[in-house]
Write a structure and sequence with these properties.
- With 532 residues, this protein is of the alpha+beta class.
- The chain has 9 helices and 26 strands.
- Helix 7 packs across helix 8 and helix 7 packs across helix 9.
- The protein is flat and about 105 Å long.
- The two termini are 64 Å apart.
């Protein structure tokens, strides 16, 4: 009996998939374990193997086609088996909808244009789990160029990184849908590949047809001959001369003493000022608001600066930062716990550690390691909120916020608690360099269970951060400051560092957050305990 193969869900966030390549064609024999196709998900392009055997009787989605999870992908069965019943049952709901649309929509607006054979429409890919639109940073091919399978077509800027996008087809680049620097939503036309000389105007018209139909205005009533359209003639607005300055019968200008004093200080000729007080009397506000005209007496006091602005288009990264942080701030009830740690022992520890040849660690590395070990003891803080449950992680993946030109990215140090201080330092440095070059992969920025943001290197002593969801907390780390402190009843010079823990109150109670900070203090103020 024939088996229906649906579009699989190949990742936890996948909602639809694109068939990048078919390895079988209709009529081919399929064995269990054979690779049927390559499916492009929201995270990667993955091979999809068959769990059935027989003959490939039907392909439901052609190469380059995109469809939701559980949509008909293929049918496998016995050679010559009648599958018309299966196809009818799969298409019935869609057919009923189409009939309803045909009954309600004007006939001339129903357009169905098939894509010519050998022509492949390349859509804007979804290159990260949060990507909603992409920007073409660079084209590596131009219209008319030959494209081979595996060639890099373009560099696409997502909300997280700039990534190379390779072609899964071969032919001639017939059309480019977006110029360099332009943005478009996922699944918009990016390019068209096909045989040289193929006319793709019909394909482009078909792709734009829904938007054109949607934008068509409603029919307007046509005016009858008996009701000619009346057009009002525009008349110029007459200029009204300003009323003359009021003066007394003997020619003296009427002004308040304060107005006279201010006018004298500013060099204003009172005969040029229009009074707004009783009977045209010049008062203080008239002097304050006076704007000299040509030939007036305030030329030396009038600023001659030029107003200017700089407009910077929001990048995909900036848009995503705005969207995600707004969602976090407005959905998660934040509260903040501030502490100040004694860093004298940490400074001495770092000095001794860096005395080891070819070894260099930073204070940030010490904090990251201390946080990782503390989270192992407090899984309630290493947690996230979900609608139906709170998920506590028993593995520690710490996200380290890195400032880049367009905003902020958060690469993730996986299994941080299991890494040594030099390993943590090397990983963070590598991520920072590649983040600024936009060379991080989505996998390197995914899966954090807790986030650290450190602005101490910029001299910031204390600040608060917005939680990087779905994490339940984020730690803000300030600079180490030398100042007077009290030790054993004596005022001495000490070194301290302020930290602020922002918690999602849905996940972490105040006492729980405080206990985590107590454990963190024990590690940071006595760092030797982390390596023995």
């Amino acid at each position: 009996m024939a088996e229906i193969i649906n579009m699989p869900r190949l990742s936890d966030t996948m909602e639809e998939g694109t068939v990048a390549k078919w390895f079988k064609k209709v009529g081919d024999a399929v064995s269990e374990g054979d690779i049927l196709a390559e499916i492009e998900t929201d995270k990667a392009t993955m091979e999809f193997e068959s769990f059935n055997e027989g003959e490939l009787l039907h392909i439901g989605i052609q190469e380059g086609g995109t469809a939701p999870v559980d949509t008909l992908l293929a049918i496998i069965g016995k050679k010559g088996e009648d599958i018309s019943g299966l196809l009818t049952s799969e298409e019935t709901p869609q057919g009923e909808t189409q009939v309803e649309e045909e009954q309600t929509a004007p006939k001339e607006e129903v357009v169905a244009t098939a894509i010519p054979a050998g022509v492949e429409v390349i859509n804007m890919p979804r290159l990260s789990d949060t990507m909603e639109e992409g920007t073409v940073a660079k084209w590596n091919k131009k219209v008319g160029d030959t494209v081979n399978e595996g060639d890099i077509l373009a560099e696409i800027e997502t909300d997280k990184a700039t990534m190379e996008f390779e072609s899964f087809h071969q032919g001639t680049l017939l059309h480019i849908g977006l110029n360099e620097g332009e943005s478009a939503p996922v699944d918009s036309i990016l390019a068209i590949i096909g045989k040289k000389g193929t006319d793709v105007s019909a394909v482009l018209a078909a792709q734009s047809q829904p938007a054109a139909v949607a934008a068509k205005p409603a029919a307007q009533p046509t005016p009858s001959a008996a009701q000619p359209e009346v057009v009002a003639e525009a008349k110029p607005t007459p200029k009204v001369a300003p009323p003359p300055v009021q003066s007394s019968s003997n020619g003296r200008i009427v002004a308040s003493p304060l107005a006279k004093k201010l006018a004298s200080e500013k060099g204003i000729d009172l005969s040029r000022v229009q009074g707004s007080g009783d009977h045209g009397r010049i008062i203080k506000r008239d002097i304050d608001s006076y704007q000299p005209t040509a030939g007036g007496g305030l030329q030396a006091f009038t600023p001659r600066g030029t107003e200017s602005v700089t407009e910077i288009a929001n990048s995909q990264m900036r848009k995503t930062i705005a969207k995600r942080l707004s969602a976090s701030k407005f959905s998660a009830p934040h509260y903040y716990l501030g502490v100040e740690f004694d860093m004298d022992h940490a400074i001495a520890f770092r000095t001794q550690y860096n005395a080891i040849p070819d070894t260099k660690i930073s204070f940030n590395d010490i904090v990251v390691k201390a946080v990782a070990l503390s989270l192992k003891q407090h899984p309630q803080v290493n947690a996230k909120w979900e609608d139906h449950q709170i998920t506590q992680h028993h593995h520690v993946h710490i996200g380290v916020a890195v400032a880049v030109e367009d905003g902020l990215v958060v690469p993730v140090v996986k299994f941080t608690d299991e890494q040594s201080l030099p390993q943590i330092g090397a990983a963070v440095k590598d991520y920072a360099v590649r983040a600024r070059d936009k060379k991080l992969t989505p996998e390197e920025m995914d899966g954090s269970t807790f986030t650290i943001s450190n602005l101490g290197m910029f001299g910031i002593q204390e600040f608060t951060s917005i939680i990087n969801q779905p994490n339940g907390a984020i730690l803000s780390v300030g600079a180490i400051v030398q100042k007077p402190v009290v030790k054993e009843g004596q005022i001495v010079v000490g070194n301290t560092m302020k930290l602020t823990l922002a918690c999602d109150h849905r996940v972490i109670d105040g006492a729980t957050g405080a206990q985590f900070l107590q454990t963190l203090r024990s590690y940071v103020e006595n760092p030797l305990t982390m390596v023995v």
